[in-house]
Design a protein that fits this description.
The complex is a heterodimer of chains A (612) and B (85). With 612 residues, chain A is of the alpha/beta class. Chain A has 27 helices and nine strands. Chain B has one domain (2-75): SH3 type barrels (Roll), CATH 2.30.30.90. Chain B has helices spanning 22-31, 65-68; strands at 2-4, 13-19, 39-45, 52-56, 59-63, 71-75. The chains are: A alpha/beta (612), B alpha+beta (85). Chains A and B meet through helix 3, helix 7, helix 8, helix 12 and strand 9 of A and helix 1, strand 3, strand 5 and helix 2 of B. Strand 9 (421-424) of chain A pairs antiparallel with strand 5 of chain B, so a sheet runs across the interface.
Chain lengths: 612, 85
């Protein structure tokens, strides 16, 4: 069996970059801690032997206090060789983990990463002396450019098992302090413009406008550019090139029949309608490549820059106050932002939160009120036709649900939300190559994972309609679907398919011939009622079955309540535009007047711990 | 002068003299580099119980209000350069 190399290090020191260079595998990399929550496996072949390489999630210590740290700690136990990746710009803090690693019974070697950035920051490290004092090889590296990684591989056989005497925390720090004074020298130098911006984005007076600006621009870019690209693709690729081909195919099959229904779907006025026909080759292909793909590409393009520049943790600082009101702290804004891309990685990022309570709140709010980009793209495209006001109602309703549900769960769910402690990475200018690689990975991921569900979903729709199950269920659920939500009974089919793919489910609202208000209700209910299968699987894993059941109950009740309220109010009592503004205003007022309980709870908890 | 991180003013620096809040909190903070005897400089804080951002050595940490009031600093206003700010 191949020997195991485990990469360990503090969060955001570049372990994953080192990993991807060593193994040639592609992994997700960002400029903030917590991108890797589960370990990744890869293979490294040197001239002598072939290793299995494991990339551990970032940790400050091997004494685990969270699930992520537990993973790292147990990986070190299984390792045949540990590569400790150290951030040269923060040598002192990084050495805490290093000294712990050197106490374990395993050969270790140190990759002194970001040595170039340390130089720019005026940090000088005497590598020879550091090597001497630690007693294991220290290899300077610049992982993003690949510099020094060959030296690292060559040095692997020189790894040394120190098995040092374990130290108490205070002793450990004084030991490190002494070490640092011998090997490191910091030269004063002037601030760069990036560092000035760094300070500005953390001061409330400038930071809040910056946060608002960044979010606004990101939103405008995604929606505006997404629509533009989707429009082009629809016009030139779908209407211009693809449609004639399908018309020909449809003619070949005689324009009807079972196979025709499945592949092409129903013709609308004798013509193919990409949104309505519900055929695998028409609606299926169109939803994925004509709508979801363009929007998601733009979204991930924007997100990639936010992630790699290091802005997200600063957004977390600005959002902390607000997030505490819904029982979370600032870091949780990161899974929420990721959730707009896809809820699956967002649910995984929730793992970085400490307590079960936080995880529950974050997962539930995300699953209920943060629609993924695939779904959003369909909503923007389809609800948008009825006018911006209706689209605004959808967004406003979800925002309202997010806030109010958060306020309620914060009060009802026992426990408290600890305040955050989060490292703020320096701003870095994202490299275009890394961006392109990351975007490529994400798009490939979408195509690989979504295609079977989208096409399978459409296929399933046709089967359900053909065997009459939709009519049957529609009849049974009429009291709920029609009575509460004001939608036609067949709308039950969208809820069934929504479990597979939410984007397809939104498309299925089109052939129902809904009014504007009905479409809004359908879109909001579909967003909130339940996560898709992929998200559901991850949520069960992260929250456990019991919490998932509670969460699911909340989702269903919330979706029905929201749908009912909209059915009651929208256009009947309140016009769309007023309702949208009203919901947002009301949510903000509620959040402001309902003071937060979590500070108080944290205080009592810390005090209790202090007394023990 | 002893103050906690919230009371400290942006731009001030000092040395951590105590962490009030039991071993759990002390250990956790210590692991990421916030330990007794460590010099810190406050960069900013968000009003109405928002997080405090501080700079230690070469990195910045945001500390939520609940923890920030537990970290006691002896303000010395020594010349503290924070290259990694």
């Amino acid at each position: 069996m191949a020997r195991k190399i485990v990469l360990v290090g503090n969060p955001n020191v570049g372990k994953s970059v080192v990993f991807s260079h060593l193994t040639g595998s592609k992994v997700m990399i960002s400029n903030y801690g917590g991108t890797t929550v589960e370990f990744t496996r890869g293979k490294l072949d040197t001239e002598e032997e072939s290793f299995e390489v494991l990339d551990a999630p970032g940790t400050y210590s091997l004494t685990p206090s969270s699930k992520v740290e537990e993973v790292a700690s147990s990986l070190v136990d299984q390792a045949d060789l540990v590569v400790n990746v150290v951030d040269a710009t923060n040598l002192e803090r990084n050495l805490f983990l290093t000294t712990e690693v050197l106490e374990r019974d395993v050969p270790a070697i140190i990759a002194l990463n970001m040595i170039d950035e340390a130089g720019h920051k005026g940090v000088r490290i005497d590598i020879g002396k550091l090597e001497l004092l630690l007693g294991v090889p220290v290899i300077p590296t610049v992982a993003v450019s690949g510099e020094g990684l060959k030296d690292l591989v060559d040095a692997l056989p020189r790894a040394i098992n120190k098995k040092a005497e374990p130290l108490e925390i205070a002793d450990r720090w004084s030991h490190i302090g002494a070490l640092i004074s011998e090997v490191q020298e910091i030269v004063h130098r002037h601030h760069s413009w990036l560092e000035t911006l760094q300070d500005a984005s953390l001061r409330p007076l400038t930071g809040i406008p910056i946060a608002a600006g960044v979010l606004f621009i990101a939103f405008q870019l995604v929606i505006g550019l997404g629509e533009l690209i989707a429009g082009f693709i629809e016009k030139y690729l779908f209407n211009g090139l693809y449609e004639p081909l399908l018309v020909y195919l449809s003619g070949l099959m005689g324009g009807s029949g079972l196979l025709h229904d499945i592949l092409i779907g129903k013709l609308v006025g004798g013509e193919i309608a990409f949104e309505e026909s519900l055929g695998v080759l028409t609606t299926g292909v169109f939803v994925e490549f004509g709508v979801v793909l363009p929007f998601l590409t733009v979204f991930y393009f924007v997100l990639g820059f936010l992630e790699d520049s290091g802005y997200l943790p600063r957004l977390a600082v600005m959002a902390d106050r607000g997030m505490h009101r819904i029982g979370l702290h600032g870091y949780s804004i990161i899974p929420m932002v990721l959730g707009f891309g896809c809820n699956v990685p967002a649910a995984l990022a929730v793992r970085n939160l400490e307590s079960r309570r936080e995880k529950f709140i974050a997962c539930t709010l995300m699953a209920v009120a943060v629609p993924c980009m695939a779904q959003l793209a369909m909503i923007v495209g389809l609800v948008g036709r009825y006018g911006g006001a209706y689209l605004a109602v959808v967004f406003a309703s979800l925002f309202f649900i997010w806030i109010v549900l958060g306020l309620i769960i914060d009060r009802v769910r026992p426990g408290y939300t600890p305040s955050m402690v989060m490292e703020i990475p320096p701003y870095r200018i994202p490299s275009l190559r890394a961006q392109a690689k990351k975007l490529g990975m994400r798009i490939k991921g979408l195509i690989v994972h979504a295609t079977p569900y989208i096409l399978g979903g459409i296929l399933l729709v046709n089967i359900l309609f053909t065997v009459g199950l939709v009519d049957y269920l529609g009849f049974i659920f009429t009291p709920i679907i029609t009575g509460i939500l004001g939608l036609p009974g067949e709308a039950v089919s969208t809820l069934l398919i929504g479990f597979l793919r939410k984007d397809v489910a939104v498309a299925m609202l089109v052939p129902l011939g809904l009014s504007a208000r009905q479409f809004v209700i359908g879109a909001v209910v579909l967003a909130a009622y339940f996560p898709c299968a992929a998200t559901f699987t991850v949520l069960v894993k992260e929250m456990g079955v019991k919490d998932m059941l509670k969460s699911a109950a909340i989702m269903i009740v919330t979706a029905l309540t929201a749908g009912f309220a909209l059915n009651l109010l929208l256009d009947t009592i309140v016009p769309a535009a007023y309702l949208a503004v009203g919901l947002v205003t009301l949510a903000i007022i509620l959040a402001l007047i309902m003071g937060n309980t979590s500070d108080r709870r944290e205080f009592s908890d810390i005090d209790r711990e202090a007394q023990e | 002068m002893q103050v906690n991180l919230v009371e400290m003013k942006p731009g001030q620096s000092g040395i951590i003299s105590a962490v009030q809040g039991g071993r759990g909190l002390e250990t956790k903070l210590s692991q990421i580099g916030l330990h007794r005897g460590k010099q810190v400089k406050k960069i900013s804080s968000v009003f109405s119980r928002g997080p405090v951002t501080i700079c230690i050595d070469n990195f910045q940490i945001a500390v939520g209000y609940g923890k920030a009031v537990r970290i006691i600093v002896e303000v010395d206003n020594g010349e503290k350069n924070c290259p990694g700010r």
